[in-house]
Specification:
This protein is α+β, with helices and mostly antiparallel strands. 20% of the residues lie in helices and 34% in strands. The chain has 4 helices and 8 strands; from the N terminus they run βββββαααββαβ. It binds zinc ion. Zinc ion (ZN) binds next to helix 4.
């Protein structure tokens, strides 16, 4: 059993067993992880209020058959906008478990809001001079998460909707 204390941004929360939740966190120390919050759905649970998407929280994690959240204390919030909510889902899809990226963490921590464009830049896909990866049109509007290429409107319309994001 190992214990970690780290700052984290809550990316997403999923229901699991009856009273538990799976919280997807982007942590400073460990990168992305999924952690179980036991009893987080009980109304009395003190954890719930500190584990909402877009919350920055200090978590105490216990690693034992996966991660468990032993404690959480929210200390800051990212501005709640549709754009930010889309962006945190995008982080969840674009990052791998247990691969901390300090550049990404610093961008997240520093900003009140975040866009897919900012995220792509820090992940190494700068959209400024990008072109469509299929037809080379300049200033593409979309990014394919599966192919990891930029796409223009026309080429994006041929890709499955859940595989592309607007930038
Ligand atoms: Zn194209």
């Amino acid at each position: 059993m190992k214990e970690f204390l780290t700052e984290a941004l809550v990316l997403d929360v999923e229901d699991s067993a009856e009273f538990d939740k799976f919280v997807i966190l982007y942590t400073k120390e460990l990168g992305k992880i999924s952690a179980r919050a036991r009893g987080a759905r009980k109304i009395t649970s003190k954890l719930t209020g500190h584990l909402q998407p877009l919350d920055f929280t200090r978590v105490r994690l216990i690693e034992k058959n996966g991660f468990q959240i032993a404690d959480a204390l929210a200390f800051k919030k990212m501005e709640r906008s549709p754009e930010s909510l889309v962006a945190v889902k995008f982080i969840k899809e674009m990052t791998f478990d247990l691969q901390p990226d300090h550049d990404l963490w610093n961008i997240l921590k520093k900003n009140k809001k975040i866009s897919n464009k900012d995220l792509l830049s820090v992940l190494g896909f700068d959209p400024t001079f990008a072109e469509c990866g299929v037809c080379n049109v300049k200033k593409p509007d979309f990014f394919s998460k599966t192919e990891q290429i930029f796409l223009c409107k026309r080429c994006a319309s041929k890709a499955p909707k859940n595989e592309i994001v607007l930038i």
